Each structure stands twice: as structure tokens, then as C-alpha cells.
Amino acid sequence: MLTKQELEEFSAEANLLYLDHISIDCVVFGFHEGQMKVLMLKSKNEAGWQLPGGFVKKEEPIDVAATRILATRTGIDEIFLKQFHVFGDADRNRQHNEMYNKVVAPEKNFFSHRFISIGYYALVDFIDVNPTPDAFSELCTWRDLDDLPPFLLDHEQIFKTALDTLRLQLNYQPIGYNLMPKEFTMPELQKLYETILGTKLDRRNFQRRMLGFGILNKLEATRKGGAHKAPYLYSFDLDNYQAALKEGLKSGW
Amino acid sequence: MLTKQELEEFSAEANLLYLDHISIDCVVFGFHEGQMKVLMLKSKNEAGWQLPGGFVKKEEPIDVAATRILATRTGIDEIFLKQFHVFGDADRNRQHNEMYNKVVAPEKNFFSHRFISIGYYALVDFIDVNPTPDAFSELCTWRDLDDLPPFLLDHEQIFKTALDTLRLQLNYQPIGYNLMPKEFTMPELQKLYETILGTKLDRRNFQRRMLGFGILNKLEATRKGGAHKAPYLYSFDLDNYQAALKEGLKSGW
DNA sequence: CCAAAAGTGTTCAGCTTACACCCATGA
DNA sequence: TCATGGGTGTAAGCTGAACACTTTTGG
Lengths: 253, 253
Known about the structure:
Two copies of one chain form a homodimer.
Chain A: H1 4-17, E1 18-32, E2 35-43, E3 49-50, E4 53-57, H2 62-74, E5 80-87, H3 94-100, E6 116-123, E7 137-144, H4 155-172, E8 184-185, H5 186-197, H6 203-213, E9 216-222, E10 232-236, H7 238-247
Parallel strand pairs in A: 1-6
Antiparallel strand pairs in A: 1-2, 1-4, 2-3, 2-7, 5-6, 8-10, 9-10
Chain B binds a DNA duplex (27 and 27 nucleotides) through α6.
């Protein structure tokens, strides 16, 4: 449990360092052993979990702030990030305040201010991440998408909005480069799409479609060790992938 | 030109009334006589035009703030609004500051603070709008999309991002209800799509596709007065339109 | 050699695309 | 009556969905 003194010290520093009223919350998606995962923090002070977040320094661009925040939580410096929504209800941190105001006088507590939060989602390669808790959390760890803990504040809404956004993006942007390891098999990539979408896809149609995008390189090697026919390995063709990111996969009109 | 005193008075009030560091900028699209238009304000103090914008009151949800800001600029209370991006570079209001700091001491000037701006776009029926300038503008008026004036600050980027977003939305959401009058002809609706997209579309395919969405009611009447065959009038089927807004027009996966 | 996973191929329906044709209207 | 815009129709081609067959692997 955080002490009153620790909170007051943090608040004094935060007032000097950060822009008031603006926060950033991040939904970090990872994928490992056929499971989609989110990075979450278990609060020291409250019974519940939060998304990794932080504040914006007085002279810092918001994208830089988001990158910095996630670098300290994951150890990754270059991270794929996208802002997706702003959460600006007047009482989104009421739950927080009721708890904090018992410990620290509101005027000495940075957290009791109203914050408008910019939501970012991140896609990372699971194995690159070194989950590191912040001063207000006792634990930072991956949580399976189908086994999520109770969220604090409006973080469940933030998470759900991020997932909805990711599902939409899937339709007109390539996804996978940031979530998959360097080399992977087609069934593994399919599993990623299936867990994001929450549906089963046809193996053969998926393969044709993916290859049709022209963003994959088929490698010589196969993944041995499975109990059955060894699938081919693929890697992303980074040039074509980047191009597809910009132009989109298919227009519509 | 605004006086020093006016600025100081506004700043003193703004500090009490508004959240610091957060602003809202709106891209209001309208459509009239085959032309796509944006609502813009001509600055009193600088040579250039701005998008309508404002600040968030201390206890006000951001969506309410955006609605309030646009209500005072347009006279419309119920306005179709969507947040689309946050603009948070550290120096986005540098241009502003250099000008303002000559007039008012920075510590007495709300505008010289750093602002992170939440971008909203709005779709409105042209004829409902009563353009009303704010205290810092000498003029509020529609500007044609293909005849835009020089923008102040980063408002050109905000505008372009809004237009890009609108073009994307077109692919999976119905657009038109908020931009068209109650009754309209198919060629008129097509003109809207063409100006948003910046391309020509096939008359017959457009009609089939639009009707295929099931969001239009064909009316008995026709639009007389044109020099040629009178086109049928249509109205939007609001129920189906709303449903399409939620579910999207076509998935993809 | 067999079960299960993976690679490859084919068919069919529905949609998009690109046109042709006819009708109504005011000049 | 004729030029023009608007309504309706249709054939060709592409794409996604559904499904069959073959190949490879470890047990």
C-alpha cells in the first residue's frame, strides 16, 4: 500500500513535470501460444487491474509520451503505437478520487484532478516484452483476452474500444508484423486473426487471401517437430507491408 | 484587432472556467449546390483562417463541450459529431504564441499555454447553419473545399485528417443523412459522394449500390424544374440508417 | 499404416464493372 | 424535335465462400 508521503511527493513532482488534465492509457496486445494477451497492472491501492498509463511532459509530443510510457513498462523502445480514442467523461476518475481522497488532501494529490485520457493501442511481439510494474502497482503481467481480471476506472471501456478498433483495422490494414515473431507458419498467423476476430476462419481461403496481399515471403524452411505435416515458414515482406499500411488493403469505392 | 485588455479579461475568465491544456477543434462539413464546404473563421488578429474551436469546461464531458462549441457557431443544438484524432505536438501553437506574446504577457494569456487539441468532425445540413463568429474572429463563413484560404496553426493538418477520415468512413458507414436535406434526388446524393471522394462515379452503379443498402425511401414525387427528365425524390429511412451506422455496411472478414 | 495437419485446387454464387437502351423534359 | 439528364437492364469478370483431394509427418 502506498503511503500518504509517497503520494504527496509524487504529486509535487508531477505538478512540475507533467501537463495537467491529460493522461495516456495504453492497450498493449501480444500473442503467444495461440492466445491473445493484454498487458495489465495490478494496483497496490485498489482491488483491481489497470492498463499501463502515464502523463505527458510539459514540452513533450503526445506520441513521444506514449512511447516513453510503454518503454518503461515493456523495455521496448520502438513500439508500434496508434491513438484510437479520447476518453473525456467528467467523472471517469471518480472511483479513483473516492479512494485517494481518504489518504491525501485533494489539493496535494495530482491524481484527484480531472484527466482526459488519450487511448493508444500497441502491438508487440510477446517475447520482446519485459513487464515492469510502476510505483502504484504490485504486478505487471500479461492477461489472456478470455480470462480478464476486474478493471479499475473506465479501463474496461478503453480496452473494449481498442479491441473494436483493432477488429476494424483488420479490414483495411495488414496486421501481424508487430505481433508475430520474425518467422511463423500460416496456421499460426491464422490463429492470430481468429483470436482478434473471435471467429473461426477457413484455412484454405485464409491462406489464399493472405498470400494475395503480397506481403509475405515464403521461406525454404518448414517448422519441424509438430506431430504432423511440417508447415512452411513465412516472414513479412517489410517493404510491401509498409506500403500496404499506407495505402490500405482494398478501397471499397 | 483585439486589445490587450480584452485578452487579459478573457484569460482571467478562461482560467477559472476551462480545463487547462485541452482544446477542441471542429471540422464542420456542409454540402450545398453540388459543393462540399467547411465552416471557417477569419481571425481578427492574424492573417489567416481557423477552424471553429474552443475549450472544455471544468466539469464538462468533452462530447458536450464539442456540441456546445458548435451550437454557438452554427445555431444547431443537435449536431452529428465524431472525434477523429488528437493533435498533440509540443509546438502546435507556437505561431499563435509569437503573435500573442507581443500583446500580452504570457503568464496573463490563456492562449499562450500549450494545448492538446481533440479533433471532431461534424456533418450538417447547410441550410440549417447560421454562421456566427466568435470574439477573436471578424467573420464566420462557409468555404468551398476546392477554394480554401490559408490556415492558421496546424489547422490545415486537422482539416486534411478529417477529410481522410470521412473518406474512410464512407466505406463502412452510411453518410448523407446529416449532410443532405430531408428530400433529395439520387444524382444529388451522388454528387455528395463524388465531392467527398474527389472522383467521378458511375451513375447507374451508384444507384444500385445505394438502393442495395436499404437505407433509402423512394418517394412518389419528382423534382420538377430541371431542364430534363425529372428525377425521383428520396428520403433516408432513419431506422435502417441508424442500424447501418451501428453495424457497418459490409464487413470484410 | 493411420490419424491429423497442412498444401493445393475447383466450383458456385454474388457482387462489381462497364456498358446499352429507353424515357421525359424544356428549349 | 432534339439535346441532355435520368431511369432501367444486362453481360463479363472478379472475389469470397464452401468444399475435395492429396501430401507429409510422428506415433
